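Internal tracking record. Fields below are filled automatically when a chain is submitted to the structure queue. Please do not edit lines marked as system-generated. If the sequence contains nonstandard residues, flag them in the REMARKS field before resubmitting.
Queue: standard
Priority: normal
Entity type: single polypeptide chain
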Amino acid sequence: MAVTSVMIVGVGGQGSLLASKLLGRLLVDEGYDVKVSEVHGMSQRGGSVVTYVRFDDKVYSPVIEEGEADFIVSFEKIEAARWIKCLKKDGKVIVNTQQIDPMPVIIGAAEYPQDVLDEIKSAGVDVDDIDALSLAQQAGSSKAVNIVLMGRLAKGFDIPYENWIKAIENSVAPKFVEMNKKAFELGYNCK
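SYSTEM-GENERATED OUTPUT FOLLOWS
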């Protein structure tokens, strides 16, 4: 098996670090050598946050270079476009359709590109776009977008559903376990 590389990209405060922790824990429990690297950027101010998760029998570096990502899990549309160059030719992008305006848009110096996902799709990229925010709210909290997206990612892995649930139980505070399990299920079963 070749190293599998997953990029989790988003905006500060969206829970991408919990998502990478959950994925890393799951993969370690499955017996893989796992490397995780986090690039926070201006995460506390709504800036870009990137996490690399790589796994195989043996992994030597956590860094994902251009053209190496098997999956990009994007918490926001522009972040998907920002990191698309890292995707392999046969890779997949799972993207939350939520729009979070970056600072240039907020201050009026730029406009949010309305057709960003269409542009990515027209380049032949396998895009799985999902309204993760609505599903998270349905689960009980808008903060569960990260777990909805992990549910969607799980469809691309040959790891039993129950093992993902166990990883959730071991990764989140007990009072949030049931809500996160529901968020995961909604992402996993979404058409």
